[in-house]
Amino acid sequence: MTSEAIAAGSLRRTGTRGEVLSVYRAERRKLLAQLSTRLLLLVCAFGPVAFGVILGLQSAVPADTLLGVWVHSSGYAVSFVVLGFGGYLGFPILAGALAGDVFSSEDRYGTWQTVLTRSCTRKHVFAGKVLAVASFAIALVALAAASSLIAGLLVTGDQPLVGFGGTVLSSGECLWLVLVSWLLNVLPVLAFTSLALLFSVTARNGIVGVLGPILVGLVMQLLALIGSGTWVHMLLVASAFDDWHGLLGAPRFYGPLIIGSCVSGVWILACLSASWLILRRRDFAGTPVSRRPGWVAPARAVLGAAALVVVLGAATSLGPVAITKARLQASIAPVFNDLTLLQQSELGRSVPRGTKLSLHTNCTRRAGKNQGPGDDWTCTMTVFTPQAGGANPFQVTPVTYDLSVKSNGCYKAESPPTLVGAQSMTDAHGHSVVNPLFVIYGCFDTTAGMGRCAEPAECSAVGSRAGTGAIAPGGAAAKRARESPAARRAEREALRKAERAAGPAVLRANSAAERREEREAEGPAEEGAPITVGK
Predict the structure, then answer these.
(1) Mutual angle of helices 186-203 and 91-99, in 10-degree steps
(2) Does any domain span residue 83?
(3) If you ran DSSP here, which 8-state letter would residue 248 be given?
């Protein structure tokens, strides 16, 4: 290759970069001049601050949102709550308002011929517009993250936060978890931004480009509520907004994070490729012919979209079942155990490190099979407390929680205050703190074999195991976990014999728990003596 050819290639590459940057700078100025972009900047900058101030002025908490009950105890919970709202509806609105009119505005004002008759080609214009919109989307996400974090720290403080696994996360750990969680949402935000660009290029209408991503996001949220399969739910780009949940679990899991990032990347590539193919083949020469708008094209689009939604809704039950009774029992039992020990510690009671409650956990669903997401799950944790003396060697205390379980494996569990105490309690130092058992937030890995357990049989054993004391040392619990199923059955049989010898009251309570598990009966568990912690 001659030196002249090398120099010519270098000039062409430099010219390409220069033209793309020129288009990028022009589009950046146009976006900053739009009222919608300025409103987005103001909302991302001051919206989380206003939310934090409102929370600080009232005692109510958004308990229905994950970690919402902790917003008055840790400022990091405020940032996580804002992030959860952004993934539900905020980010699709941001993408539509930012990118929905980028290409369609050229059609509306008839400026395509002016733009393309300059030295810029279609490729330069397309690349410059995409870069401008993507940079603004990333900047808005970063601005919202910083605003929510600052608002939480100023209003509430940098106290530790209780994660989804029932463990207490230190302030430094919470800080990097907040930053990483917001960073993980950048890819799905760019996926919705690419979808808005596709609507803008295809429909050549700004309203369709703005509202399209919002409607798609709402449809994806509705599809996440139905079906028990995993394949369709994983392919929905809106599911990637929940990938950060695994970082707050105990132990942490990364399966949904990896899948969600790959799905977001596929959506970005597919939407941008389709947008470029449509734009490259479009004819901009000649005077545009004004046509009277008709109903045929909109009707076809609506009917096609409705048919696609119906097909996806019917396919939501395809694939392995993500939400099962065994997974739920295996997840909520250790979370309940850790939160109970945290409650005891805050009340000033001495609890050895690594201790375990003796629990018999049974989860059922009032409607349909014991699988799939829904708001009709109930889980009963039967606590066996050893008695120092008297006729009964154990005090049996069933604690029933009503659960709302989502398809991503996250759930919120609530129990009557008569069993676990009120939302607030007084700790050993006389301060009013959140009762850890009032609302339980948890998440488990729907992509693993059985969440916390390697095999389904192990999960079932963990969910239904009952020990011989209210609190057993961690070493003894680990030893029982390594025992064979036959040894565990012998242990449970010995426990049943001891209860039968204790008297009819203990026998009735234990028999009722066994019947509920065998028949998967409906209705709440039989109330025993209220649990004393937190009251």
Answers:
(1) 40
(2) yes
(3) G
Q: Is residue 462 part of a domain?
A: yes
Q: How far is CA 144 from CA 70, 82, 261, in A?
A: 20, 9, 21
Assess if residue 497 is contained within a domain: yes
Residues counted in the chain: 535
In a domain, 529, yes or no: no
Beta strand ranges found along 105-189 (DSSP E): 161-162, 168-169
Q: For 7-50, write each residue's pLDDT tens digit.
A: 344 434 445 777 888 889 989 999 999 999 999 999 999 999 99
State the pLDDT at residue 348: 84
Residue 349 token pair: 């009671």
532 in Cβ contact with 420 (< 8 Å): no
Backbone phi and psi for residue 127, each to the nearest 5 degrees, phi listed first: -65, -40
Query: What pLDDT does 230 receive?
Result: 86
Q: Are residues 240 and 140 in the same domain?
A: yes
What residue numbers bound the domain in which 23 lies? Answer: 11-283+302-315
Same domain, 268 and 351: no
Alpha carbons 337 and 437: distance in angstroms, whole number: 10
CB 438 within 8 A of CB 477: no
246 lies in the same domain as 352: no
Instruction: Collect the ranges in the chain with pLDDT lower than 50.
Output: 1-14, 450-483, 520-531, 533-535
Number of independent structural domains in the chain: 2
308 and 216 together in one domain: yes
Q: Give the ranges where 162-185 is alpha helix by DSSP (H).
A: 171-184
22 and 41 fall within a common domain:
yes
Q: Which residues does 499 contact at the CB level (< 8 Å), separation at least 6? A: 393, 394, 506, 507, 510
Are 535 and 347 in contact, with CB atoms under 8 Å apart? no
Quick count: other Cβ atoms within 10 Å of Cβ 323?
23
